[in-house]
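User: Sequence in, structure out. Go.
Assistant: Echoing your sequence, followed by the C-alpha cells.
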Amino acid sequence: MGRAAERLHISQSPLSRQIRQLEARLNLRLFDRERQRVRLTNAGRWFHREALSLLARAKQLESDAGRIGRGETGTFSVGFVKAALWNDLLPDALRRLRALRPELQVALHNLPSTAQIEALQRRELDVCLVHVPPRDSGLTSTCIQKEPLVLAVPKIHSLARRKTIRPKDLDGAPWISPPRAQFQESYDRLLAACSRAGFSPLMKYEAIDPTTTLALVGAGLGLAFVESSLQRFPHKGVNFHNLAWFPLRTRIHLVRNLAGLTPVSQEFIRIVCANEERRQM
C-alpha cells in the first residue's frame, strides 16, 4: 500500500480510504486484508484484468480519435448522381483519395439530387454530387462539370444513318424523357432548349435514368438526349449523333455545408476541383 501510494503521489491513508469507497460502490470485496499483507480476492483479480483492458482501450480510443480528426481513418459519405460515375468524375476522385488516405472507408449513396440535399442537411452525407444546386443558404455549391448531350436514335429509325440531323427532323418525334414529377427542373430545361433549337418533342415515355432510357431507345420506342460519356459503353440497337446546334449541357454541382467540413471533405473537394481543372486544360 505504501509503494502504491508513493507512485500515486498521495499518502497511504487516503489511498486505503478510496479503495474502501470503491468496494462499497461496487458492492464487491477486492482485497483480503491481513495484518502484514493485502492480497487481491478472486473478484479483485477479475476487476484488475478488466481495469487494465479498459485503460488500454481508452488509450486506443484517444489514438483513433486523433486519426479520425486528421482524416486518416473513419467513414466518408458521398452522395452522387450516376452521371458522375459514367464520366469518371467520381471514380477518379476516389482513386486519388484512396492513395492519400488508404484506411478511409467510403460510403457511396446513389440518390436523386433532392434526396441528396436533404441527407446533407441532416449531416448524413459529407458532400454531394448533384444535377440541381440547392437553394438552402446553409449550403454552398460549385458547378464542377458541364457535359454535352448526344442524340440517341434507334438503329431501325430513319434518322439512324443520317450524317446531318436538323431540328425540323426531330419535330413531333416520340421522345423518352426523365420523369417530370421527380426531375422537374431538368425536364423544363430540356423542353426550353428544344424550343430554342426549333423543334417540339412529343414526350411519350419516362425513364428514371439514362440506362433505362437507352434500353427504350434500343427497343425503337423513341429518341432521347443522354450524356456524351455514355457512348463509351455498348448499347444494343442505339446510334449516337453529336448535334452541334443543340447546346444543352448536363451540369454536375459539388455541394457541401458552409461550416463544419472535415479534413477528408476538404481533401475530396480539392481533388475534384483539381481534376476538373486538369480535364479542361
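User: And one key feature?
Assistant: Residues 2-69 form a domain with the Arc Repressor Mutant, subunit A fold (CATH 1.10.10.10).
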